[in-house]
Amino acid sequence: MPRTAAPLLTSPIPRVADSDRRRTSASVVLRSVLEHGPVARSTIARLTGLSPASVTDYCARFAELGLIRESAVLRRSRGVGRPHLPVDLDDSRFVVGGVHVAVPYTTVALLDLRGRVVARREVKHEGTEPAQVLARAADGLRALLAGAPGSTALGVGFAAGGWVDRDSGTVVEHPLLGWREVPVREVLGGHTGLPVHVDGHARALVNAERLFGGARGSRSVLHLFAGNVVDAAFATNDEVHHGPRSQAGAIAHLPVPGGTESCDCGRVGCLQEELSERTLCRQAREAGVVDGVNPMHVVGAAAAGDPVAVRLLLERSRRVGRAVGLLLDVLNPERVVVTEIGVMYREDCLAALREEVETGRAATVSPISFPDSVLAVAGGSVALDVLYRDPLGASPEVI
Fold first, then answer.
1. What does each C-alpha distance from 166 to 83, 99, 158, 226, 268 come to in angstroms?
2. What is the per-residue pLDDT across 309-322, written as a single tens digit (0 to 9) for each?
3. Which fold has domain 25-72+85-89?
4. pTM of this prediction?
């Protein structure tokens, strides 16, 4: 996690404040390069409100660490004077590892500093015992790094559904995997020798949207993830809400009016059971649409013109829309991002979802920006969020 300098014994409060201020300033400078690069230092100063001298100092430190580089393209100012030599991210040297543990398989990936997937693979579970799953994930990461000899890994991000405690680096509870109190940071760090950062996948994807996706610049963002696990995350003023022990966003057992699916908790109509991809696949099997458990096969059947597959996807999207409407009433975000296979791949499903949302808010709802790499981006973005929040504390020099 981000580190701060130890306070001086003679004046602890100012030193802590200074450290926080430096961390924030470094963050806004690197984020400005990410969002606007190639960009002149003078433009960064104008955008951030920092002094030109401070911006120059941070850029020099980032360049020394290999996070940014000067662009080869000169840019002239609007007035007279010498052309500006802009700076841009150096996305050629460093990567982060990403690990996302889903119910049927683990996705391992390498992402560059712009959040783009450089390499990835899926590791099918041979069992869900935590030590085995994490060891195989580490093996997968090593194989990807061996195939990218010019890249240096800054760290590893881990994401999963269920209850994931960011601060302790622990999966507290993942009922579908049977995991309880799994010390992911400790175990995965021991296998890789790299810093490991851990978070829930809904929160990880909010951070990915803020940094690299369509929600960049939004003042508040709600994300609803509807896969085998159903959960949510909410960010406001560039901060994702975690709550005590990172339990915020646990919406699996919210009641759905008119729901018919039985839940393991003993009730009927819980949100996760109604929206789960397992439920979708079971319904598709019962209707003779598919014979497996891969929800993308339902999407494929719909694309091939199967009317039952289309109906199942549209019905699911409408239920997702009703859940979004409920969350909108409670949180009133500026933007809503939905990760759900129908909405990601079919315009009619997105339209069906929006029809369930209040007319004036429907346009604020959009699919995730990374439909073909959701799980890879979720894992890697946990580590990238740490980098962009504290680029000097999470720098390659420290690692």
1. 45, 14, 10, 21, 31
2. 999 999 999 999 99
3. Arc Repressor Mutant, subunit A (1.10.10)
4. 0.91
